[in-house]
Amino acid sequence: MKNNSIRILAIESSCDDTAAAVIAEGRILSNKIANQDIHREYGGVVPEWASRMHQENIVPVVDSAMREASVNLEELSAIAFTAGPGLLGSLLVGCSFAKSLALSLNVPLISVNHMEAHVLAHFIDEPVPEYPFICLTVSGGHTQLVRVNSPYDLKVVGETIDDAAGEAFDKIGKYLGLEYPAGPIVDKLAQEGKARYDFTKPTVEGLNFSFSGLKTAVLYFLRDEVKKDPNFIVKNLHDLCASVQKVIVDILVEKLVKASKQYNIREIGIAGGVSANSLLREMVSKTAIEYGWRTYIPKIQYCTDNAAMVAMAAYFKYEKGAFADQTATPKARLKIARSTDD
Ligand code: KG4
Ligand code: ZN
Q: pLDDT tens digits for 8-56?
């Protein structure tokens, strides 16, 4: 590798995972993550625990990413961090660490939007989508449709007005007695079930989503059925999972089709942890054939929260000279920057 090549260390700490990655000349050299199992027993992420665990994990995770990449601190061209959206206490740990390191190494600091990073994860490996493309980002915290005109021009064209798709999987899974995070368990159990319960889809105008009504509808349905038969959930668990999964996936794919038609774009990307869902993958593949889409889903380790995607987004910013300074502060509700379409 040339001595003057661009090498960036990226740190991600927006929720409960502490992650660090090194990118050199646009290629990911390492991608490390420390998951926080502690939240499982509470059935969801506990913000106070999350920030404390980030403080414990950040040094070993960064150290491990640097060692795997075989890059020394003095060889770094910049330090990148996730500035939001996310849990403020968690974001502050990554931001403070990145600022101190950039200051001590006298290299630029790059601030990255977590949602932009999920989208730009599509550029880590070939094949990459052509611009403009539509990206559906579906995770535990977010559900967004983004029109991507370039790495510097992303426009949110639709988003959830209440819960995220992953949150719907997790909360409904909890009503079904499943562990947190329930999404992957629902997916697994659904494979042996039939989607024979008809949960109605919400009517939301345009390209926005809503999952909160569905959650309540399932809760009331279960309450009524359990009154009649206390073993209703256990007896019908597979079919319940299949039905819940089907309605969530139907909502997502329906809006994706609508966005593709509205913007006449057939380059389609999926990002975020829920993109691991087997029915979503199957439905997107089927829909792609029907509508002539080319579809892109990054490797699963780049879909769930990770620092490689932050490194990729930071690399684009480095090329443009878009640096932050020591006054940078994270924002829990950070929005994707305005687009030229606005
Ligand atoms: O992107 P991610 O790792 O973290 C953030 O929320 O940012 O996404 C985690 C979410 C959780 O809600 C989890 O239940 C969901 O993704 N998830 C799934 C599957 N795998 C992960 N949901 C449905 N089916 C899956 N196979
Ligand atoms: Zn995320």
A: 999 999 988 899 999 999 999 999 998 867 667 767 777 877 788 888 8
The pTM (predicted TM-score) of the whole model is 0.94
Ligand 1 atom having least distance to the Cα of 173:
14
DSSP label at residue 339: P
Cα separation values, 197 from 7, 29, 210, 279, Å: 52, 46, 19, 16
Q: Which residue is listed with tokens 């079930």?
A: 193
Distance 230 CA to ligand 1 centre (A): 29
Give Rg (Cα) of the chain: 21
Phi and psi at 164, nearest 5°, equal -85, 160
Q: Probe ligand 1: pick from 304, 306, 310, 334, max atoms within 8 Å of CB?
A: 304
**Best CA proximity match to 214, nearest among 179, 249, 178:** 249
Q: Is the CB of 116 under 6 A from ligand 1?
A: no
Express each pLDDT in 211-247 by its tens digit: 999 999 999 999 999 999 999 999 999 999 999 999 9
Q: Compute the distance between CA of residue 73 and CA of residue 58 in angstroms, rounded to an integer.
A: 15
Beta bridge partners of 244: none
Is residue 305 in contact with ligand 1, taking CB distance under 6 Å? yes
pLDDT digits (tens, 9 = 90+) for 153-177: 999 999 999 999 999 999 999 999 9
Query: In angstroms, rounded to a whole number, what is the distance separating the alpha carbons of residues 342 and 143?
Result: 20
Label residue 99 exposed, middle or buried (CB < 10 Å: 0-12, 13-18, 19+): buried
